[in-house]
Amino acid sequence: MVDPAMVAFYRDNGYLLVKGLLSRPEAQAYREECHAVLGRLRATDPTWGSARELAGGATELRHCHDAQFYSAAFARILVEPRFTDVAAALMGTENVQLHHTKIFVKPAEKGSPFPLHQDAAHLPHTRHTVGAAIFHFDDAPEEKGCVRVVPGSHKQGPLPHIEEGGWHLPPSEWPLRAAVPVEAEAGDVLFFSYLTVHGSGVNTAAEARTTFLVQFRDPLDQPVDDVHRSRGQGMMLRGVDPVMPSPAA
Ligand SMILES: O=C(O)CCC(=O)C(=O)O
């Protein structure tokens, strides 16, 4: 049962940090799994062009989309009720459907920033129920480039983004420093609406920042455009899909 005050905070502010959703030992095991998966992948660096400008020098980001296809540990976390019950309560639905997942590792001393943006610019949907959950597998203080949010910005609806450099908001109007840092500890999970303006700074600390991002939606909420496909999209994480599309041929 999710505390109604948490839901009220999310509705007002567009984000919610759930402390200790995973235990520290669980987070530590997932941290090792993330680094092991990335070690097996020949990954490309997904740093946005605009992030390079923001950082003022060379930075690095390591990532893996659809991590549940590479390690069962990530399939388990997707249907973990400690996570899905919160996602359902925040959306106000019984049913939670997967959009996509990604591991992000911001390497020590040079982990790439993200300019402020709404995820809605990358994956627009008709009903705006889409949300993200960022699982923290190690501590993420401000110097590690923790996620920063603009509280209440989700109430503005979809905002125009600049395509060049990675679909972000104009930095002159939306400087990263204007967003509130949401410092987190290993095991904490940050939930936010895909309309909430967010980004993150450079990791200047001596340790990597390791996170797993799950983007979810109400199954009744459909994409506006066919712009963001992923292998696992449509998997039910909680409840049922009331729409029941035709079986795949
Ligand atoms: O993990 C971060 O620092 C931010 C990630 C983010 O903003 C995104 O994937 O949209």
From TrEMBL:
GO molecular function: dioxygenase activity
Alphabetized SUPFAM superfamilies for the sequence: Clavaminate synthase-like (SSF51197)
Superkingdom assignment: Bacteria
Coiled coil: none
Keywords attached to this entry: Dioxygenase, Oxidoreductase
Protein's name in the database: Phytanoyl-CoA dioxygenase family protein
